[in-house]
Amino acid sequence: MRDLLSINDLTKDDALEILDTAVQLSALSDSSNRKFPTLRGRTVVNLFFEDSTRTRISFEAAAKRLSADVINFSAKGSSVSKGESLKDTALTLQAMGADAVIIRHGSSGAPAQLARKRWIDGAVINAGDGTHEHPTQALLDAFTIRRHLKKDQGDLAGLKIAVVGDVLHSRVARSNVLLLQKLGATVVLVAPPTLLPVGVEHWGAQVSFAIDDVIAECDAVMMLRVQKERMEDLFFPSEREYARNFGLNAARIAEMKESAIVMHPGPMNRGLEITAEGADSKRSVIVEQVANGVSVRMAVLYLLIGGATSRDLAAQIGDQS
Amino acid sequence: MNSWLIKNARDLQGKDVDLAVANGQIVHVKELHHQYSELDAKGLTLMPGLVDLHTHLREPGREDAETVFTASQAAVAGGYTAISAMPNTLPVADTAGVVEQVYRLGKSHGLCDVFPIGAVTVGQKGEQLAELVAMNQSEARVRIFSDDGYCVADPLVMRRALEYVKLFDGVVAQHAQDPRLTENAQMNEGEVSARLGLKGWPAVAEEAIIARDILLAEHVNSRLHICHLTTAGGVELVRQAKLRGVKVTAEVTPHHLLLTDEMAATYDATYKVNPPLRTESDVQALRRGLADGTIDIVATDHAPHPQEAKDCEWSAAAFGMLGLETAFSICYLAIVKSGLLSLADLWQRMSIAPAKLARYENHGELTVGRTANFVLVDLNKSWKVDAGALKSKSKNTPYDGMELPAVVEKTFHNGVLVYDRENQGREGA
Question: Which chain B residues contact residue A171 at CB under 8 A?
Answer without folding.
Answer: 197
